[in-house]
Amino acid sequence: MYPIKVKAIEWTGKGVKWLNTNLLPHQEVYEESSDYERVAKAIESMEIRGAPAIGVAAAFAVAAAVVNADINDVSKLRLLAVKAIERLSRTRPTAYNLFWALERMRKVVMKEYSNGDELRKAIVNEALKIYNEDIETNIKIGEIGEKLIEDGDTILTHCNAGALATAAFGTALAVIRVAWYKGKRISVIATETRPVLQGARLTVWELRKEGIPVTLITDNMVGYVMYRKLVNKVIVGADRILGDGHVINKIGTYTIAIAAKRHGIPFYVAAPTSTFDLRSRIDEVKIEERNPDEVRKVLNRALITIEDVNVLNPAFDITPPDLVTGIITEKGIVTEPYTENIKKLFSL
User: Which HAMAP family is this protein grouped with (predicted)?
Assistant: First the structure.
């Protein structure tokens, strides 16, 4: 099987261990906590980020809450688990995997149990199941998606949809990884991804670890590299995909999709089926607005503008389905017509 070189999240038996992505690439620091509130804050502050990773971390945080509670009464333990679920559900509003994972945990919590230990065991097992399924799913996405990659391709990716955004292996980067492992001579162009620089800090770090050739560009160079025919394909991840094929992903994705369409470059999205939200309409999706200082400063350090300037800082944008060549999932590649074919995907 393929090597797992980066594990962003792990279960310790008592709590959650995660690689603090805010400190990369200069420091590789692992944090650990059995406190679901600490994990919630780690998600909010983006120590843990990426839709699948958030879902896994939230599931582990619920497990940590009950494992470390000195409570034997099933009803009281259930109330604690529900309290943890409700807190974690308020961390980030856009990434759908968070709600998908917490709904799975809630269903387990609400079943009948004869004692507290039985409930604890069920919760931990479900969290571990979510974790292991994520890794298996990511590898399948890579194996399915790599067939789209030709020897010699240069692939542009945006933000970080790699091992650091998942339990391990990644989504968009899974496709790139598997193509590389199979001997395809490929290279990657990574956008820096303002304002938090996930591309510059995280994607470049991951690809360097793999030995995959990578070139870093600023976000406003995308049109230029496409015009110069330096890109063959675009592959990005997603934080939420609607039933009609609208893709919600890191801010800047929509702009890249428009440029790709103009230049005839295939634009692919790689995401697990757990990222699909089949219930919401486009006008119901809440786009997270983050701290203005992420824009006013570089990595919350150097002020680059007037201190009190008004800032717009949406974390995500929405790419319409007509700009998407295909969506790579663990069940196959979905293409237009998206409404019809996404329904088929979930009937498999």
Answer: Salvage_MtnA
Residue with tokens 């010699």: 152
Binding site, by residue number, is: 49-51, 92, 198, 249-250
The single residue of 239, 244, 308, 322 carrying the catalytic annotation is: 239
Report, as an integer, the average pLDDT of 237-255.
98
Question: Does the annotation mark 239 as catalytic?
Answer: yes
121-180 per-position pLDDT tens digit: 999 999 999 999 999 999 999 999 999 999 999 999 999 999 999 999 999 999 999 999
What is the secondary structure of 146-215 as a DSSP string? GGGPPTT-EEEE-S--SGGGSSSS-SHHHHHHHHHHTT---EEEEE--TTTTHIIIIIHHHHHHHT--EE
pTM to 2 decimal places: 0.95
Q: Which domains are delineated in the chain?
A: 9-139 (1.20.120.420), 143-345 (3.40.50.10470)
